[in-house]
What we know:
The protein is an alpha/beta fold. It contains 12 helices and 11 strands. The protein has helices at 2-13, 17-43, 63-79, 94-102, 116-123, 158-167, 182-194, 206-215, 228-232, 283-297, 300-308, 318-339, and strands at residues 52-56, 83-87, 109-113, 134-144, 146-149, 172-176, 198-202, 220-223, 237-241, 270-278, 312-313. The strands form 2 sheets. The chain has a 6-stranded mixed β-sheet with strand order 2-1-3-10-4-11, sandwiched between helices. Helix 7 (182-194) links the parallel strand 6 and strand 7 (198-202).
Amino acid sequence: xxxxxxxxxxxxxxxxxxxxxxxxxxxALGAAAALAALxxxxxxxxxxxxxxxxxxxxxxxxxxxNLARALGQRLxxxxxxxxxxxxxxGGGTVIxxxxxxxxxxxxxxxxxxxxxxxxxxxxxxxxxxxQSALEPLAMIAVAPAILFVHPSVPADDVPSLVKxxxxxxxxxxxxxxxxxxxxxxxxxxxxSQIGATIVHVPYKGNGPGLNDLIGGQVQGMxxxxxxxxxxxxxxxxxxxxxxxxxxTLAPDLKPIAQSGVPxxxxxxxxxxxxxxxxxxxxxxxxxxxxxxxxxxxxxxxxREAIDRAGVEPLPMTQAEFAAYLKSEAERWGPVIRAxxxxxx
Length: 344
């Protein structure tokens, strides 16, 4: 039948029947190959191709961990793939960061980290990873700090605090959540810009430091908006916030940079929270990851989770996030070196 049909078409088109027999054979082979490929295509898992791990170099229950879990839950729903939060605390975030730096660059291992990523290279010798081994992917949020003082400090705003520190004749004491923490380095930057000396009192976490501030054992501390509850109770005073512009976290507080003290005109310090990927992760994969993370961050329930955490969303392109981390290193490197700050 096929030979007869080829012969008829050959007669009408003035082409030899053998030509059409060859074409039919090629077409049949192509169709068979396409059909054979269909099951394989159908079995290809959706992006990103399997379970995803979010490495968090902090203990469970902290702010970075809470943000990672909120993000992971929504990414799992979007991808239809499991997203696992892997807490690898210890070594001042070095243990978890090193694990992420060694992970396969396939888009299925992400690092959710914070402030220490940019400061550790200045505070620690012989890190077990190169900073370039992880590429900035997406910013999640930032948390500018609020400057709190004990009620016994004779200052109700930043200018009067600066005047008191300069004239008291003794160092002002600042609590922090530990050596090399953002409250510690922020306090050192504040002191260096006003030309003062401080006594740094490190604690194992914000809670113990805040307790001693309320008790009057220390005079000041940079802490989160959660401590504003103690201001309402009359146990602390809040003098300013460490953002360059007014912040939605504390709209009634003036930025320290806008307090009228010339030396503090550019003062800013904040904890940031973001996502990085192992170096060499394919650019198309990075682009898709960034787009999906941004889409999740823009959802109302994720914005609500960010607000509950006491931080501000800060949408950025991937290039903007990379530039932000570079500027953070340039800001804190000189302060850390000048004060010879070492991590716990």
